[in-house]
Amino acid sequence: MPEIIQEDNDYTYAIEAGRYSKHLKLSNYPVFHHLRGISVIHGDLNVLTEKVRAYVEDKIDLCQPDTIHICDGTDRENSNLLNLLQKQGTIVPLPKYQNCWLARTNPADTARVESKTFICTEKKSDTIPTPEEGVKGSLGNWMSPEHMDKEVIARFTGCMKKRTMYVIPFSMGPVGSPLSKIGIQLTDSAYVVASMRIMTRIGQAVTNIMDDTTEFVKCLHSVGTPLNGVVENPSWPCDPERTLILHKPQTNEIVSYGSGYGGNSLLGKKCFALRIGSTIAKREGWLAEHMLILGITKNGKKRYIAAAFPSACGKTNLAMMTPTLPGYKVECVGDDIAWMRFDENGQLRAINPENGFFGVAPGTSNASNPIAMKTIFKNTIFTNVAQTSDGGVYWEGMENEINDNVEITDWLGKPWNKNSKTPAAHPNSRFCTPAKQCPIIDPLWESPEGVPISAILFGGRRPVGVPLIHEAKNWRHAVFMGASLRSEATAAAEHKGKIIMHDPFAMRPFFGYNFGHYLQHWLNMEKRTTNLPKVFLVNWFRKGSDGKFLWPGFGENCRVLDWILKRLDNEDCADNTPIGLIPKKDSLNLEGLNGIDMSELFKLDAEFWEQEINAIQKYFEEQVGKDLPPAIREECDKLKNEIKNM
Ligand code: GTP
Ligand code: SPV
Ligand code: MN
């Protein structure tokens, strides 16, 4: 028997028959394993269940990768991938911080592409409501399964030649929680693997709990190669012309081609947790929503609140808020997605299916979001932010956070200074950072049964007309409120200009099925419990005639949360108005805050609201038509009448 005298990650060192010997640990190098004749260069094939293996084999035949890498989720794997990405020029280290990296994308690949995102069902009406004749539907895009198959074959055949196919087993939600779901993502992007490792729980922890009966969502992703074969920007391959993001709810399948960015490529996020998630939620009787989850403690009493705001409208900021009022504490459960269901006692419970924050960088500063600033300067991948000559990052909003003498390189790699006409960071530049690093992460953020939700907020960017806060009169009104949500367009998707867009439930880009059916599903929640959460609509973004925000926002938003808590305690602090309940005079705590024009902030203008309700009604009629639940039509008519008497 050899006597082992030492070992490290790669070798064991032994004395055998009086001689020194060194043995490579073969278990670390399973190059002798193959799948469909392709070498597995990392990871253990045997951890894959039969069903997973069959899925991977099928996609190997299609994509024809050179090698297979089965992700184990270890630190060692991660540092190897980061090295590789550095060699490829995809990321550069940020020596000012600990284990932080900057990725610059191809400038043509910087945001989600809604126009190229489709849900594939046999019947079109399962995916989108039938718009009025002559009207273009804007509540999602539909494709038939046959068409989907054709498009997939055209793009994916041989798309991973000369590339590695990474197999990422991942869990949305704490591993093993009854509310969690498992996915398998196949991708040819190491950047995606490194990001998925932050945003979800990946690797062996997940394969360990899988057996042959375990269901999983199938997620296929390739950054693609343009038809002419020319990869313009080898450090960020992509194929913007042919980008396509497809979802097949019937088989729990996602197929994404052509983009390496965010919601297009980190398939656990919008594709799985929202689009496929909402279809599973519909079948199983729960809710998959574009919502942050926060805990707020006042006088020792803690409540949890979920809030749906459209992309780049303040979820991350609210979820990590530092209250300005003394005696309040906010803790963060999640900043983007909530999976919620009523438990056997009729209590709504929520989990954050994610494991990290993929947050908007511009605007994040010690003044606006100090908690995020304490979270993101270790183990973080920044994408499309600007870089400083001392090895740090920079973006709009960080003016007071950098030394005056540093030089700045913009997100495109060009020298930048304060007089430059273009922004230093792309407006949709992001940080991708582990949630557990957040100093105010909630102690229950990984609780398998979820946290109890007492209130739901909707909100958006409304420069005119919409008050700081109003409360829904009842559940039907609440569902109507969510359905009527509108907001100014932002840089998170490819829309141009500052138009006010309808964004029902902040979910318009993320519905996995017909919005009319979604509304009915929400209405049906009334039958599941006698303990419905109270629902509110907030607007931090109303502007005065000088074009400036009327409300300071950020940490001061705790004053609005405070009013919500009073309402949850059934305090008589609300006045009825046609659009809902608003704070009674002096019931919103403004102590220590000067210069707030409360009358402008809460002014209800009859002309504005008449236009608003007309726009909402037109939208429902044109876009949802016969799929609109009668209860919502009635709410709409009721509100219209009340506004007439305003
Ligand atoms: P997604 O990750 O795209 O879903 O966005 P999000 O909803 O998490 O938005 P986020 O919190 O990242 O905020 C986006 C932008 O809105 C940032 O530039 C913030 O500075 C700004 N913002 C957030 N909260 C407030 C607020 O209370 N008032 C004002 N004026 N701006 C805010
Ligand atoms: C959003 O756009 O709502 C995001 C960013 O959270 S992405 O993941 O790209 O969808
Ligand atoms: Mn989002």
TrEMBL record:
Please name the Gene3D superfamilies in this protein's record: 3.90.228.20, Phosphoenolpyruvate Carboxykinase, domain 1, Phosphoenolpyruvate Carboxykinase, domain 2
Q: What is its EC number?
A: 4.1.1.32
Any one cellular-component term (Gene Ontology): cytosol
> What catalytic reaction does the record list?
oxaloacetate + GTP = phosphoenolpyruvate + GDP + CO2
Broad enzyme group: lyase
Phosphoenolpyruvate carboxykinase GTP-utilising N-terminal domain location is: 55-282
| GO terms (BP aspect) | cellular response to glucose stimulus; gluconeogenesis; glycerol biosynthetic process from pyruvate; oxaloacetate metabolic process; propionate catabolic process; response to lipid; response to starvation
The UniProt keywords, alphabetically, are: Decarboxylase, GTP-binding, Lyase, Manganese, Metal-binding, Nucleotide-binding
Q: Name the domain of life.
A: Eukaryota
- Which positions fall inside the Phosphoenolpyruvate carboxykinase C-terminal P-loop domain? 286-641
Q: What cofactor(s) does the depicted protein rely on?
A: Mn(2+)
Q: Which GO terms describe its molecular function?
A: GTP binding; manganese ion binding; phosphoenolpyruvate carboxykinase (GTP) activity
Q: Which NCBIfam families match?
A: PRK04210.1
Name the family: Belongs to the phosphoenolpyruvate carboxykinase [GTP] family.
Q: Which PANTHER family match?
A: PHOSPHOENOLPYRUVATE CARBOXYKINASE, PHOSPHOENOLPYRUVATE CARBOXYKINASE [GTP]-RELATED
State the protein's purpose.
Catalyzes the conversion of oxaloacetate (OAA) to phosphoenolpyruvate (PEP), the rate-limiting step in the metabolic pathway that produces glucose from lactate and other precursors derived from the citric acid cycle.
Assembly, per entry:
Monomer.
* Name of the protein: Phosphoenolpyruvate carboxykinase [GTP]
